[in-house]
Amino acid sequence: MSSVSVQQVTAGEPQSPEPYSNRDPISALTVVPTLDVGAADAGAVALARTLSQAGHRAVVVSRPGRLAADVTAAGAEFVPLDIGGNNPIAIIRNAFALMRLARERHCDVIHAHGRAVAWSALLAARLTGVPFVTTWYKGFREQNLFKRLYNGVMARGDRIIAVSEQLAQLVNDRYGTPWERITVLPSSIDFERFDPAKVTRERVEALRRGWGIKPDTKVILVTGRILRRKGHHVVVRAAQRLKEMGFKDFLCVFVGEDRGQTRYTGELWDLVLETQTMDVVRMASPLHDMPAAYAAAAVVVSAAVQPEGLQRSIIEAQAMGKPVIVSDLAAGPDVVLTSPATPDGRVTGLRFAAGDDAALAERLVRLFAMPEPTRRAIGARGQAWVSTHFAPATVAEQALKLYAEIAGRAPAQAQRPQQTRS
What does each C-alpha distance from 207 to 225, 285, 293, 294 come to in angstroms? Predict the structure, then answer.
């Protein structure tokens, strides 16, 4: 048993930011490797929007990507710079570029969203004397000493933000980081967009036709980039077990981007052929209409085999009223309510041991064996849970309070009473 004291806050769109707006505005330099589809990319944009709408100045530095327009539309400044490399010479060169920007924009905070950019941001912060902040969106593998050193920059912030309590615990366990330097600040989602009442039947049916799915087929939806840590191979093995048990009329749909940077996609296809699951596995391209994808699903699964922190897709799925099944590394109890920690009448999903395809298959069987009203009730509880605990107004206010504290505009926030975690 260990005692944990973490400042629990949430992040998102501000509705009432008056206490921290237009009084001695904060200038923040946000550094992120890319502005495409990753959690860090979306998190950086959301933070820039929150700060800008509250009257502060947000400067976002990144390689240009599809979300760059969102930065400027939010009222923030976008500075294009290829800053994601891990070459030591490039890191030093980028550090001096960031140092110049921080001085020119009179920045009060330098905030890194990623390891490669964090090294340059750390050097720039130390050269300028500006507070250095990092955000953890996932748990990094530390398979050797070099990786531990490389990842360790994310624990060297004057303040460290973790998107879930699971990641906060990981940072403390791995690096011994004092709890007073760690803040839990979950990512936010657009509840207007992810509202099941706004998704028409025509949109759902069009998507299912595009996937070649029969009306009675149960869709097991897996979202996110095609990466080994996401555990797609575990889902394929579980699908094989379902077929061997005689289950029919189900289809695993993998919706995500394959950047072609690893051999994993090829290995995944080899596994599909080996397990003879081609008839129950689809690999779909990234979708613009993700609300319709969730609406078309019977269940949303995350089989992550590394700590994922807070997966945006799991919150989105619950917002759409869908039951979820997650590995114990995919989401913590602050994201998905599962038994035995939560009474059966309050659960929002099911949980299984990471990497255990037999356990995943068993959870799928259990969920599909439930009466339809029971499954709907699980989804409804998930919808209520995320709408309460990831409320945009609360999230934005807490994010602004945190930034005011880091920039020296407000006294330090009071710590939560200690709670015991096993």
Answer: 19, 12, 7, 10
Number of domains in the chain: 2
* CATH code of the domain covering residue 413: 3.40.50.2000
What would the pLDDT profile of 275-329 be if each residue is shown by its tens digit?
999 999 998 877 889 999 999 999 999 999 988 777 888 999 999 999 999 999 8
Helix (H, G, I), strand (E, B) or coil at 325: strand
Q: Identify whether residues 346 and 414 lie together within a single domain.
A: no
Which residue in 343, 351, 348, 327 sits closest to 390, CA to CA? 348
In degrees rounded to 5, what are phi and psi of residue 332?
A: -90, 180
Query: Which residue range is the domain that position 77 belongs to?
Result: 2-188+390-421
- Whether the pLDDT of residue 131 is over 80: the answer is yes
Q: Give yes or no: residues 121 and 204 share one domain.
A: no
Kindly state whether residues 260 and 306 are assigned to the same domain. yes
Q: Alpha-carbon distance 363 to 329, whole Å?
A: 16
The larger pLDDT score, comparing residue 419 to residue 157, is at 157
For strands 419-421 and 2-4, give the pairing.
Answer: antiparallel
User: What pTM does this model have?
Assistant: 0.77
Name every residue whose Cβ is closer than 8 Å to that of residue 211 and which is 6 or more positions away in sequence. Answer: 219, 251, 253, 282, 284, 296
Lowest-pLDDT range of 96-100, 217-221, 413-417 = 413-417
- CA separation (Å) from 371 to 157, 221, 286, 366? 49, 20, 32, 10
Please, how many CA atoms are within 13 Å of residue 278, restricted to the half-sphere of its CB?
Answer: 5
